[in-house]
Amino acid sequence: MRKRSSPQVFENIAVTDAGAKGKTIGKAPDGRIIFISNAVPGDVVDVQTTKKRKAYFEGIATNFHSLSDKRATPVCEHFGICGGCKWQHMDYTHQLFYKQKEVENNLRRIGHLEIPEILPIIGSDQKYFYRNKMEFSFSDSRWLTQEEIKSNNEITDKNAIGFHIPGMWDKILDIKKCHLQSDPSNEIRLEIKKYALENGLSFFNPRSHRGLLRTLMIRTSSTEQIMVLIQFYDDDEKKRNGLLNHLKNKFPQIDSLLYVINRKGNDTIYDQEVHCHSGKEYIYEEMEGLKFKITAKSFYQTNSQQAYELYKIVRKLAGLNKTELVYDLYTGIGTIAQFIAAEAKKVVGIEAIPEAILAAETNAQENNINNVSYYSGDMKNILNDEFVAFNGKPDVIITDPPRDGMHKDVVRQILEIAPEKIVYVSCNSATQARDLELMKEVYEIKAIQPVDMFPQTHHVENVVLLKKRIH
């Protein structure tokens, strides 16, 4: 086991930059980097260390000698405890600056890439209330504040519905108001808690695996539709129907009211049966007249407005003229494939999740798009020579992998296919840089466009256009 070191305190540390995972950077007296979890570049702080490594420290600012002019006043009462919006204390203009800088640093330092001038990051018009999907957890043993613990008073209201405390899988912060999703999201969540307390509905205990109410998912859409899914642990039909009927009557604007009975070890619903209590099993998103059916298990970009900006960038960088065969890797429910279909000769989408492919095919049919086809399977297995021989060699590949990036076998196969252009969309510029390094002998980076999908966080989307080198 690693020997646990005693905390140190470094005084008057100038915070000079923002680093990976939203932490800021200072320098210890011995020259080692300090990653600080709660400061803003420009602050001067005292830091208490929480971790010591050979090359760096991690710590928390305990005293602020001077505050940065890059600061903003957080709007959320839960800021500093909730792990959701860690950059609320930084002015949005500076958030964008450091996001773009992170993209550039990752491409240069991780990928060792020669890059053109990065296009200015596209910010979000909505700084708050921009998410179309939120997931909350129930708990019968909520996170207690230091004031509550020190008071020695008996705590009777231990039930919570909210978010996990960072790094603590069994502790839930009870959320009064979340600034990430528009109304009636907060009203629905608070009404569920109120009804549960008044009617004796038990909240889940993640350690003992007991309780009725387990998780809550709320989806809202650009078409102003609402989906609510409650995940129950106990299968108590009377209590379940009582709550669901109450929600149906209290919020008649809910278009899709769903539930899941989940008695397994984790909260994921992808292997669970989703039941429809009232309304339909889906809601719709819309983009340039295209409609996309969103089910409880569908992946869709969580910022609808910025998703439209992102897809326009993909289409522009692809530079299609209705003669190209395009492969859309990690196609999900087929949104990018259908968004670009009018500009392509044909689009072939590949996705690992069978239900997503069924949704993509349904969406294409409802949108009267006839030049797309979809295949389901593990990308590293399905994207092979036989697949290319059957579908044709693509002129353009669009790839939008998960945060882990592409498997090295997928990168190898793309290099064998050698399309003229690749548009690489990524929510993790570090893994994107790793993949691009594997392609740099064959492909040249022609354009880099960061897009901010997640204001008040350090996360950033990035789109890169690659063109085959002329040898």
Question: What can you tell me about this protein's structure?
Answer:
The protein is an alpha/beta fold and 471 residues long. Helices cover 25% and strands 28% of the residues. The strands form 4 sheets. The protein has a 7-stranded mixed sheet, covered by helices on one side. The protein has a 7-stranded mixed sheet with strand order 18-17-16-19-20-22-21, sandwiched between helices. The protein has a 6-stranded mixed sheet with strand order 1-5-6-4-3-2, with no helix packed on it. A hairpin with a 5-residue loop joins strand 3 and strand 4. Helix 1 (92-110) packs parallel to helix 11. The protein is globular. The chain starts with 8 loop residues before the first strand and ends with a strand.
- Gyration radius from CA atoms, angstroms: 24 Å
Tell me what portion of residues adopts beta-strand conformation: 25-35%
Mean pLDDT: 94
- The class by helix and strand makeup works out as alpha/beta
Report the strand count: 22
Number of helices: 11
Helicity level, as a percent range? Answer: 25-40%
What is the compact description of this entry?
The protein is of the alpha/beta class and 471 residues long. 25% of the residues lie in helices and 28% in strands.
Q: Can you lay out the helices and strands and say which pair or pack?
A:
Blueprint: E1 9-14, E2 17-18, E3 24-27, E4 33-36, E5 44-52, E6 56-66, H1 92-110, E7 133-139, H2 146-151, E8 160-164, E9 172-174, H3 185-198, E10 213-220, E11 226-232, H4 237-250, E12 256-261, E13 275-279, E14 282-287, E15 290-295, H5 304-318, E16 325-329, H6 335-340, E17 346-351, H7 354-366, E18 372-376, H8 379-382, H9 385-391, E19 396-399, H10 408-417, E20 421-426, H11 429-439, E21 443-451, E22 461-468
Parallel strand pairs: 4-6, 11-12, 16-17, 16-19, 17-18, 19-20
Antiparallel strand pairs: 1-5, 2-3, 3-4, 5-6, 7-8, 7-10, 8-9, 10-11, 12-13, 14-15, 20-22, 21-22
